[in-house]
Design goal:
With 413 residues, the chain is mostly beta strands. A 10-stranded antiparallel beta sheet has the order 7-8-9-10-20-17-16-12-14-13. Strands 6-11-19-18-15 form a 5-stranded antiparallel beta sheet, with no helix packed on it. Strand 2 and strand 3 form a beta hairpin. The longest helix has 12 residues. The radius of gyration is 20 Å and the shape is globular. The protein starts with a helix and ends with a helix.
Length: 413
Amino acid sequence: MKQIIAVVIGLAIISSVGCSISSSKRKDKKMTKSAYEEETYGFDMAFFKAHNLNCLELTDGTGAGVLVSPELQGRVMTSTVNGPSGNSFGWINYDLFKSGKLNEQFNPFGGEERFWLGPEGGPFSIYFKEGAEQVFENWKVPAVIDTEPFDVKKQTKGSVTFEKNMQVVNASGFKFEVGIERTISLMSIDQLESELKMEIPDESVNVVVYQSENKITNVGNQAWTKENGLLSIWLLCMFNPSPTTTVFIPFKEEGDGVVVNDEYFGKVPANRLIVEEGMVYFKIDGEYRSKIGIPPFRAKEICGSYDSKKKVLTLLWCSLPDEPKEYVNSNWGDQEDPYSGDAVNSYNDGPVDGKIMGPFYEIETSSPAADLQPGQSLVHKQRVIHIQGEESELTKILQYVINVDIETIKSNF
């Protein structure tokens, strides 16, 4: 099974296929020495400035900060809980920025949360032309979700809204006319406490939480139907891996069928994937390429990861439909069912043929398939929460939210 993360490794080793970025944009120049250490928010702010990537910062005066780039589709590049000196949570492909080159197929700049559209493969793929064999050489990410900017519609200190209209043709020849609206909002501790229905001990932990609200609208004259193919909103979060990081994904135990799809790149070994009562644990060290998926009938609204070295708890919430819905299938090539995709995914990077693009890890969520009449819209929301502090306090939060403690997560791998 081939997926987007499988092919970015190939992009990292392709030579002489890129084109130069505009001289007014990410110039190939040395970075001005930063006053901040690597892996800090201040370091990444200085890096983006040195490489001419325009970023808008959302702040609330508490130390929480979120950097968002209009040039890269309203992408959240990174965030912090403690100002410029705090940890920078997003994975950044520094080498690609430094190169000053664009690739014709895909440009994996990184970033903590980006907007994409599915499906990637199959008869309704928007990443392959009609009639083309679905192999790496023919795969291409639409520029509108790769290199084109989104327009800023409105902005405040704590939020920014982007918009973009696009046309895209799927592998069956159907043309979609899509209106995109994406809003990134920094949420306060009070809002988080209201959502979680618990008190956050702000004296002993630092927090950043933001929400992305993503809407696609059928702005054309033709209905989007299953027969012609449907789109979905696909949000991908890229973070920095470590040997002390574990992804945890709760799942619904009731019902029949697969709990976790762990064969994207070959079956995940037992020492890297544990499935217990109601919970999946996935080892995240950036040393073994593997991916898992949770089908929609098993998925819950919240999942996350924990880095025991940095004492960072990351929670990711996504909106799920109240009733069962179909999800697009992104597998490349022939498919038995184009609407049997996953709702939640996680990926651990690792070497392929001695090469590695990251390392990084991902947590991804998708909307249901968008069967929309002209003028109708579909919305998919996601919240990213980073909490850093003493494990005793993090355990209280985690036990309340998903009934698991930090020691259980740490002891699995």
